């Protein structure tokens, strides 16, 4: 198939493009910034283009001649992400419907089993985009995923940095809700299935075999990193204050962190009757193994780090060789990130 990947330079997109090539597809890799195939190691089998999903003319040019569209665009790094994502999704949906593209795959988010009025702005936006895109094509599918595990994944990197920085970790009691993470390699497999004629359709949940609480996920990260940490319940911890503190304690984009923290109040688990199972069979990757791969230096699989990952998610070569404890290295990396943010041109 000829597959258009919108948001190809993001975390999942940077893993998906070579994965699709390995499975024999032609790929059009689109991003909102100027294309830089050399940064990602893409060869001439990839057509790299610039495409603003809010621009109908640019979207029409991008979808012309493709068999399927994979939509990975999210704007959590902006304060107005809901408006931006709604406009982008509606623009793409209108163009896709007019062009007759029948297969659309959207990477959405797990939706808690609560009234929609109680959903966070982040999850509400994902659900809104999902509905727009599912309505535009007969063979559309929304793959709902929670925390995607892999080096460079925003949600995973936030957890890793918090679990590494503090020797004593205050954990709000409202964060005892359950989460069902998924390895990025299984997300890629789910996209594979969604592109087939007899693959899943509609909204399908994607998760690992493991369901655990957020503090336990932090423990797994610490254990796999060989770190001993103490987690202390914090009964009084407003979500806004926790979001601000987490944003200040990590190198991830501010608005992304605060939006994600707001989503931790509810269980983020798969619906048993609407959960993806691989067509080819074989087990899904467990959380501990996925985290081990993500923390293994130079790991060559999808969970491993890539040179193309954003600077805030990568280690610093100098700091990595200094004889510092993990918490000291993380603190130094955070301080260096803050200094760079204050310098013009960086």
Automatic annotation (TrEMBL):
Q: Which residues form the NAD-dependent epimerase/dehydratase domain?
A: 3-197
A Pfam family name for this chain?
Epimerase
What is this protein identified as? NAD-dependent epimerase/dehydratase domain-containing protein
Q: What organism does this protein naturally occur in?
A: Nocardioides flavus
